[in-house]
UniProtKB/TrEMBL annotation:
Job of this protein: Specifically methylates the guanine in position 2445 (m2G2445) and the guanine in position 2069 (m7G2069) of 23S rRNA.
UniProt GO molecular function: 23S rRNA (guanine(2445)-N(2))-methyltransferase activity
Enzyme class label: transferase
Main location (coarse class): cytoplasm
Alphabetical keyword list: Cytoplasm, Methyltransferase, RNA-binding, rRNA processing, S-adenosyl-L-methionine, Transferase
Organism: Alteromonas arenosi
Domain THUMP: 42-153
Name listed for the protein in its UniProt record: Ribosomal RNA large subunit methyltransferase K/L
């Protein structure tokens, strides 16, 4: 008996393929596998010819495994010396658990014990386990109280054909590429063109060429699991191999591999050459949006277009798919199009109706294969401006901000802040970048609806604002706790410079949730810095040091910048260098609360803008601004000169300053929240609260 395994969603296709390869077999279907009663010749043919199977397992026995002892006894019942000898190495792949065998590593150990003890019982030496390059691979598959034991004839997943030396960023597995070709309907019409407009490393085109030339996919494999197996018949194998080589023919129709990156085309050519199908494929370099099938009235487009792993990828992908859908309608009438994506929302941007869809896995990614027929209904260009309400509001905001921008002396500002409940994002301008922060939606809003709204926003932003889609960063904004506020959300190392009232600041629009400058404190920074001349200044919870820079430019006598994060302190130092600032400036990495409690230096001016909450491992204890603000201000007063001033701010909406307790510390209290609210944040007056606290004489 043979078991052929495959990825979820491909088992029915595999069953049909087994019947094509070996018409004499009657395969049975189980989730993720096909089972057949077969001879050795059938097993060889399936190993060599299957384009969809991952493994071919020659079953030795099925027996009870309700507990460890039963498993051991079932293993011991096999005459292992008939399959390999004691001088050979072996490896065990164990899958499955039950109520008694909950740990697959332990179960694999019991299988190994049964095999080794069998050889020792025959008076042989103890065979060795080799996990890297074993002579024989033993598959043990547990289902409830039954274990199936067999020899892995494939010797590694069959999707690894052996022709791919290099891949692109998101490689498509070879057997999945074959599966989408099967699902596309192209196999029944191979004389018609097959085009992959975004071929990447060329996997789909190569698999199509292997099919079209009747070339067995296993011909390029260097290793098999049966070559060291005692039951292996080399003469039979060579006969089947020779017949496969003799079966190769000329391609039945044109196959085109296109990509807009020359480096990927080079990889695809190299892989195609290794697969023996270089001459069966036409390679070309062109942007998919301008691709026209010249001289080809109809054909099959089969592709695995980019679908991105990060939310920020959507900023470029959503507009691209929207434009690509229009291009497909204009240039590919009568074609059949099959697209694989893990992001169904991206496929929706094409504005096409799928004839049918299939769920399948590409590695660990759950994907959807959508088949489209470019008939009259799908050639209709549908209006994509479905969110005119958002577009109108954003245009209105930008127009209203023009007068403010003429006198604001900055190129970093907010143009939208959840003005409309259904479009729950904040949009900030940083020089020539747009940063879109999606607020985490309430639990009563369906996630799919929220995603669609975000996609609608991203589609419209380039046309409304004139910004390059490549310079739109998208992030999800939720409450940040502890060390999470310091963690990266991407790794693109984008850094630009923005200006604010004569100061310059480095901004990273892509890699962090916060870009390096809190825009809602623009006015607060100016008010504070105006008092800094010849003063000793403390900037506590300093972030990237923007307040410190403004104070230095206004002639502060000394500035102490304190923050828990080394990353942000280094950023602050870079901001000082950017502004050509040198002098009595100190940068201290420390737990701000503990540092202030231990400090003895006196300051004339303090800027304190703590987080709402923190439980960072680098802190002693936790921080809660509502609970701890009086104690913090008590330490601040102790380090404040007579008539010294503290600007105290935070963005916890529910925060209430304990004014009685604060005044008892010897501070006069002035709420300046309204005065510190910039024009571009007046739509959201609760963005922060701010007080000027002055030490009484």
């Amino acid at each position: 008996m043979l078991i052929l395994t495959t990825s979820r969603g491909l088992d029915e296709l595999l069953r049909d393929e087994v019947t094509r390869i070996c018409p004499n077999l009657q395969p049975r279907l189980k989730p993720g596998q096909v089972i057949v009663e077969a001879e050795l010749a059938d097993a060889y043919r399936l190993c060599l010819w299957s384009r969809l199977a991952n493994r071919v397992i020659w079953v030795l026995t099925q027996g009870p495994a309700d507990n460890a002892q039963q498993l051991y006894d079932t293993v011991s019942s096999i005459e292992w010396q008939q399959h390999f000898d004691a001088k050979q190495t072996f490896m065990i792949n164990f899958s499955g658990t039950n109520r008694a065998l909950k740990n697959s590593q332990f179960a694999a150990q019991r299988v190994k014990d049964g095999i080794v003890d069998h050889f020792i019982g025959l008076g042989n030496a103890r065979p060795d386990v080799d996990k890297l390059n074993p002579d024989v691979i033993i598959q043990a598959r547990l289902w409830r109280d039954t274990v199936t034991l067999g020899i892995d004839l494939s010797g590694g997943s069959l999707h690894q054909r052996g022709y791919r030396s290099e891949t692109g960023e998101a490689p498509l597995k070879e057997h999945v590429a074959s599966a989408i070709l099967y699902r596309s309907g192209w196999l029944e019409a191979q004389s018609k063109p097959m085009l992959d407009p975004m071929c990447g490393s060329g996997t789909i085109a190569i698999e199509a060429a292997l099919i079209s030339t009747n070339r067995a996919p296993g011909l390029t494999r260097k290793r098999w699991g049966f070559t060291q197996w005692q039951q292996h018949n080399q003469r039979l194998w060579e006969s089947i191999l020779s017949h496969a080589k003799d079966s190769i023919c000329d391609p039945k129709g044109p196959i085109v591999a296109n990509d807009n990156q020359s480096s990927l085309i080079a990889i695809a050519k190299k892989n195609a050459d290794a697969a023996g199908v270089f001459n069966a494929i036409k390679f070309q370099r062109q942007d998919a949006l301008s691709l026209v099938p010249e001289g080809l009235d109809e054909g099959f487009m089969v592709s695995n277009p980019p679908y991105g792993e990060r939310l920020s990828d959507m900023a470029t992908l959503v507009p691209f798919f929207n434009q690509w859908g229009i291009a497909l309608k204009q240039n590919f009438a009568n074609w059949r199009i099959s697209l694989l994506s893990s992001q169904r929302d991206l496929l929706r941007q094409l504005k096409l109706r799928a004839k049918n869809e299939y769920a399948l896995m590409n590695g660990n990614l759950e994907c959807k294969l959508a088949n489209y027929v470019m008939d009259t209904a799908n050639l209709e260009v549908r209006d994509s401006s479905t969110t005119s309400e958002f577009a109108n509001r954003l245009k209105k905001n930008i127009k209203q901000l023009q007068r403010f921008l003429k006198k604001a002396n900055t190129n970093a500002y907010r143009i939208y802040d959840a003005d409309l409940p259904d479009y729950n994002v904040a949009i900030d301008v940083y020089a020539d970048w747009l940063v879109v922060q999606e607020y985490a939606p309430p639990k009563n809003i369906p996630a799919e609806k929220a995603r669609r709204r975000l996609n609608d926003i991203i589609i419209q932003l380039p046309s409304i604002t004139g910004f390059d889609p490549q310079k739109i960063a998208v992030k999800v904004r939720s409450q940040q706790k502890g060390s999470a506020q310091y963690q990266k959300v991407a790794e693109q190392s984008s850094r630009i410079v923005v200006e604010e009232s004569g100061a310059k600041f480095y901004i990273n629009p892509t890699d962090y949730l916060d870009c390096g400058l809190f825009l809602d404190h623009r006015v607060t920074r100016q008010m504070f810095a105006e008092q800094a001349q010849q003063k000793h200044v403390l900037n506590l919870f300093a972030y990237t040091g923007s307040v410190s820079v403004h104070c230095a430019l206004r002639g502060a006598r000394s500035i102490t910048t304190v923050d828990l994060s080394k990353t942000y302190l280094d950023w602050a130092k870079d901001n000082f260098k950017l502004n050509g600032l040198t002098g009595a400036y100190s940068f201290i990495q420390a737990d701000c609360v503990k540092w202030l409690a231990d400090n003895n230096k006196q300051f004339d001016l303090m800027f304190i803008d703590p987080p709402s909450f923190s439980n960072s491992k680098r802190m002693e204890g936790t921080w809660d601004v509502q609970r701890d603000h009086v104690a913090l201000l008590a330490d601040a007063v102790r380090n404040l000169t007579e008539n010294g001033v503290i600007y105290f701010s935070n963005n916890l909406r529910s925060f209430k300053l304990d004014q009685v307790a604060v005044e008892a510390l010897g501070l006069s209290v002035e709420n300046i929240s309204g005065e510190t609210l910039p024009e571009d944040f007046k739509r959201n007056p609760k963005i922060h609260q701010c007080w000027r606290l002055t030490k009484c004489s």
